[in-house]
Write a structure and sequence with these properties.
The structure holds two protein chains of two kinds. Chain A is α/β, with parallel strands linked by helices. Helices cover 33% and strands 21% of the residues of chain A. Chain A has 17 helices and 17 strands. In chain A, β15, α12 and β16 form a beta-alpha-beta unit. The relative contact order of chain A is 0.12. Chain B is an alpha/beta fold. The chains are: A alpha/beta, B alpha/beta. Chain B: This is Beta-hexosaminidase.
Chain lengths: 506, 503
């Protein structure tokens, strides 16, 4: 009983069900049959990736359930240097040629090979007799942006490991390569720290059932790595830290009501030496637990009310000559924090406020744009890049903001380089992230809320800038969505339709 | 009414008896039950329960006895709900006691069992308790429904059964099955097998066989839920035309058929012969005494374009007023329904187009904002017709934030009319249209948001007017749903003891 909408019925696209759309793809009508019995993925003689390359051996096993072949799939991975197989430097170019009797995948790095295998699996389809087929194809592919991320929030609601892993799997199907783990925040501190175990003991929703042990964290990192996904943790300060204060007394600023403490606490206390001792030890641990070259330090939405109320802080402001400008105090804190983190040899990512407030940043800082309407975020992108910093865009991709209808189309249309700037500036846009904040999200609704809406972002970040045909995208995305469902991922529907294999869960 | 009294008789009789005794009035609301009972009082006096020794029993004076299929099944079901993860062999020795539940019908007993199951809780050691409690309960409205749409997306039978379970937990009692529509016709008709063979998304994998339908009906019945089928016409019928040629109106472009089809063709006798035969089957397949005939959103464009339809209009003296043609069609099929001894429910469009319908036809209000639907409530009840209100509860319309509050604060009787008119509002319905919904996201989208409406339809409005007070109770209820295997989404930040472990 709805307004009669013009119904988009998914039709076949000439690009099949490829998602994201490769940079260059030629599909012919010539088709080959595949059978389970003789399909093999082998390393070419010239390939320097061998059976010892964990990634690809692993992929062989994960691929068996999705593709079968008479032809031999030859993996031709060239230019692997020494231990390149393990090192995490993303250069996912690859070339895929499907022919008979061989299909050949050439990739300079193992990450390209991973992407190529996913693409190959997307070329396989069933004919009306149920036989698996693949058409003669030539693909040459590479991502438009190097940083293609998903943010999950495990503080507003605890996310069991299973759902995190399922989403890493789905990210790989969509060629996302960064998992931005917003692991702690005001509401709960589920990260079990070796150095400060009290943080989760007192700050998690439950100290045993709602925490991530070191083993859990390792599992996530390794699971992600095998799928070509970096894990960038975010420990957001000085705001968003209520839960930190439960297990670390004196870390947060005591708020005052008049001349007496009110019992409430505010942001991290920036005037105590103990604060910086804590941060030094804490981030030393973080830098060893998370192998990625970057840590996200947050720095967003700092509420000054509590600082303003505290007499010790007022005195400090006077001593420092900050006047009544508390953003100077915020900068003072951030500056010291950034220096601490630099000594761990990590680069840092920060939310845009830190840049907006004029904090001194290292040249390789990545600034994460998240605020404002379309005009505002485009201005911000222009400002950040004109100051020479690399930037990530998230503003148009807050997937937690749900609404009725096909909102994936809005995500698909947003372009991170759509602002007034020079070529140099545009090059500083390293990519973007789809964010699924957790106020209204947990394992019960995370996967259908994230997918396939995040897939729209995936294509915007991977494919060429001129890939903008919405009806072709609808056709391919409908098929891609059914493929995710077939792989047991409860990706929700785009519109009235059906998949040959519907979701089997309830 | 439920009376739970505990007699500490540490005799050798370790059992919990369910007997029938009537009692009276309570004072404080019981927090742990959703929807909130009409009259209740509990005390902090805590009674332990021993799953080893607990059982339900029919009272000696009870007319229902072993062999009453609904209650036999319910006792078994509720035992597992009350003692989740229970393994026989746990040894607890606890004092005996009794609780009593009295109900006039078996359906009331079901509601009482549900309430009782929500009163039982576990402490930190895992022991089960229930507090001394007195409850007298009854629903404010008789018709408390959920609509599922299995045409825009096929819903596997499992997904429907799961929804029926969750409905019982919130005391919903009508499953409005919007089974067919434009995109697909999954109902496998015995009389017209081509309807699903040609009209379903897939003739084998995306259909409801007669067995499937019976399964749904009996599963619902054991939970005290009526199944109300909807075969919506003359609009919303594109998929019907695939397997029944000549049913839909051919649209014309200029002087020739365009190849497209419109609503059901109301000018041909074959149409009414078809409807009569189809409805005869539907009436025998679905035991409920009501059938929903739809009648909404009829687009006149195609009828206008067709010369035969225009000729028919002239012959009937309808001029160019196509609402008269629609009325003609609806009146005919409502009459067919009457001859089959069923009562029709139709969407409000049928009333709005001044169709002459039998007195006992129920109107289903779905359009507009409060300003619109309160006016419609007044209009329809003034004409002496019964109504079901759905307009404020189209929860397929998702939005960011705690939109359950909007569902909760609806005031179904807040319209201008007499007491007699207000009595004609027999209830309300939560609609989950299927354009963007299938088994991947149905359950979290439906629950616990639908439960907010459940309380509005069951409980006393004065006692349940505060959203602030409802919030912690609904959060708690949501955690209960999780515990019972219902993938209900969170209301806001927080946690449950037992989180959902799936993906």
């Amino acid at each position: 009983c709805m307004r009669n909408q013009v119904e988009l019925v998914a039709q076949s696209s000439r690009y099949g069900s490829l998602w994201p759309l490769p940079q260059k793809v030629q599909l012919s009508d010539v088709s080959f049959k595949l059978t389970t019995s003789s399909f093999r993925i082998v390393d070419a003689k010239e390939s320097s990736a061998g059976p010892s390359c964990k990634h690809l051996t692993f992929l062989n096993f994960s691929c068996h359930c999705v593709i079968f072949s008479t032809s031999t799939f030859v993996l031709w991975a060239t230019s692997f240097e020494g231990n390149e197989c393990d090192a995490f430097r993303d250069q996912p170019t690859h070339e895929l040629t499907v022919n008979q009797p061989f299909a050949v995948l050439k990739a300079p790095k193992v990450w390209g090979a991973l992407h190529g295998l996913e693409t190959f699996s997307q070329l396989v389809y069933k004919d009306e007799f149920g036989t698996k087929n693949i058409n003669q194809t030539t693909i040459s592919d590479f991502p438009r942006f190097a940083h293609r991320g998903i943010l999950l929030d495990s503080s507003r609601h605890f996310l069991p490991i299973k759902v995190i892993l399922a989403n890493l799997e789905t990210m790989a199907m969509n060629k996302f390569n960064v998992f931005h783990w917003h692991i702690v925040d005001d509401q709960s501190f589920p990260y079990l720290s070796r150095t400060f175990p009290q943080l989760s003991q007192k700050g998690a929703y439950h100290p045993y059932t709602h925490v991530y042990t070191p083993a859990d964290v390792k599992m996530v990192i390794e699971f992600a790595r095998l799928r070509g996904i970096r894990v960038v943790p975010e420990y957001d300060t000085p705001g968003h830290t209520q839960s930190w204060g439960k297990g670390q007394a004196d870390l947060l600023t005591p708020c005052y009501a008049g001349s007496k403490p009110s019992g409430a606490f505010g942001p991290v206390n920036p005037i105590l030496n103990t604060t910086y001792d804590f941060m030094t030890q804490f981030f030393k641990e973080i830098s060893t637990v998370f192998p990625d070259a970057y840590i996200h330090l947050g720095g967003d939405e700092v509420d000054f009310t509590c600082w303003k109320s505290n007499p010790d802080i007022q005195k400090f402001m006077e001593q420092q000559g900050f006047g009544q400008d508390y953003s100077k105090l915020e900068s003072f804190y951030i500056q010291k924090l950034l220096n601490i983190v630099s000594t761990t040899n990590k680069g840092y990512m920060i939310w845009q406020e830190v840049f907006d407030n004029g904090v001194k940043l290292k040249p390789d800082t990545v600034i994460h744009v998240w605020k404002g309407n379309a005009q505002q975020y485009k201005n911000e992108m222009a400002n950040v890049t004109s100051s020479g910093y690399q930037t990530l865009l998230s503003t148009p991709w807050y997937l937690n903001r749900i609404s009725y209808g096909q909102d994936w189309q809005g995500f698909y249309k947003a372009d991170p380089q759509d602002f007034k700037g020079t070529e140099e500036q545009k090059k500083l846009v390293i990519g973007g992230e789809a964010c699924l904040w957790g106020e209204y999200v947990d394992a019960t609704n995370l996967t259908p809320r994230l997918w396939p809406r995040a897939s729209a972002v995936a294509e915007r970040l991977w494919s060429a800038k001129d890939v903008t045909d919405i009806s072709d995208a609808f056709n391919r995305l409908s098929a891609h969505r059914c493929r995710m469902v077939e792989r047991d991922i409860p990706a929700e529907p785009l519109f009235s339709s059906y998949c040959p294999h519907e979701y089997k869960g309830v | 009414s439920i009376r739970i009294i505990k007699k500490y008789t540490c005799l050798n009789m370790n059992y919990l008896l369910l007997i029938m005794i009537h009692i009276g009035v309570g004072l404080h609301a019981v927090g742990g039950v959703w929807p909130m009972p009409q009259i209740s009082a509990s005390s902090p006096e805590q009674y332990p329960l021993n799953p080893e020794a607990f059982y339900f029993e029919y009272g000696r004076q009870s007319e229902a006895q072993p062999g009453c299929s609904v209650l036999d099944a319910a006792f078994k079901r509720y035992f597992s709900l009350i003692f989740p993860d229970y393994f026989p062999g746990d040894n607890l020795s606890v004092c005996a006691g009794q609780a009593s539940l009295k109900a006039e019908t078996v359906w009331g007993a079901l509601r009482g069992l549900e309430t009782f199951s929500q009163l039982v809780y576990q402490d930190d050691f895992g022991s089960f308790f229930v507090n001394k409690t007195d409850i007298e309960d009854f629903p404010r409205f008789q018709f408390r429904g959920i609509l599922l749409d299995t045409s825009r997306h096929y819903l596997p039978v499992q997904a429907i059964l799961k929804t029926l379970d969750a409905m019982a937990y919130s005391k919903f009692n009508v499953f409005h099955w919007h089974i067919v529509d434009d995109p697909s016709f999954p109902y496998q008709s015995q009389t017209f097998p081509d309807l699903s063979a040609k009209g379903a998304f897939h003739p084998m994998t995306h259909i409801y066989t007669q067995t499937d339908v019976q399964r749904v009906i009996s599963y619902a019945r054991l939970r005290g839920i009526r199944v109300l089928p909807e075969f919506d016409s003359p609009g919303h019928t594109q998929s019907w035309g695939k397997g029944q040629s000549d049913l839909l109106t051919p649209c014309y472009k200029g002087g020739t058929p365009s190849g497209a089809f419109g609503p059901v063709n109301p000018t041909l006798p074959s149409t009414y012969q078809f409807i009569a035969r189809l409805f005869k089957e539907v009436s025998s397949v679905f035991p409920d005494s009501y059938i929903h005939l739809g009648g909404d959103e009829v687009n006149f464009f195609c009828w206008k374009s067709n010369p035969d339809v225009r000729a028919f209009m002239q012959k009937m003296g309808f001029g160019t007023d196509f609402t008269k043609l629609e009325a003609f069609y609806m009146e005919s099929i409502v009459n067919i329904t009457s001859t089959l001894n069923k009562t029709a429910i139709v969407w409000q469009d049928v009333f709005d187009y001044h169709e002459r319908i039998p007195e006992d036809t129920v109107l289903h209000i779905w359009k507009g904002v409060p300003y619109d639907y309160t006016k419609e409530l007044s209009r329809i009840t003034k004409a002496g017709k019964r109504v079901v209100l759905a307009a404020p509860w189209y929860i397929n319309h998702i939005a960011y934030g705690q939109d359950w509050r909007k569902s909760y604060t609806v005031q179904p009787l807040n319209f201008s009319g007499t007491e007699e008119q207000k009595k004609l509002v027999i209830g309300g319905e939560v609609c989950m249209w299927g354009e963007y919904v299938d088994a991947t996201n149905l359950t979290p989208r439906l629950w616990p948001r639908a439960s907010a409406a459940a309380e509005r339809l069951w409980s006393d409005e004065k006692q349940t007017s505060s959203v602030e007070k409802a919030f912690p109770r609904l959060q708690d209820f949501r955690c209960k749903l999780l515990r019972r295997g219902i993938q209900a989404e969170p209301l806001y930040v927080g946690h449950c003891r037992h989180e959902y472990q799936g993906i």
